[in-house]
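Predict the 3D structure for this chain.
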Amino acid sequence: MAFAGRLVSMEVFEHEIGRMTKAGPQYSEFVEALNFQRDMLMMQVENGLLTPSQYLDNLRKAIAADFTRYKQQGDKVAGTHVVIMKKELAEAEAGGLA
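Done. Predicted structure below.
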């Protein structure tokens, strides 16, 4: 679960929180950490420390990094994150945020 420190997507946070919650109580501390990181990201956006443009730029960088990780290392979690983030980015762009 080394990916936790690389997460920049609200949608990926939600996906991983759900996945770890379903995996069982042995992951409860990890779920708490993900919730904390997600909440910190939300606070940055809400307080203007992270603009929508910056958020989307971070998302684009994370997509590229996770795609490379998926292709070079066969990291299926990274591949799943790419799919989720591409959808999130497309929805933002369709909504005029990009």
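The chain has a mean pLDDT of 93.
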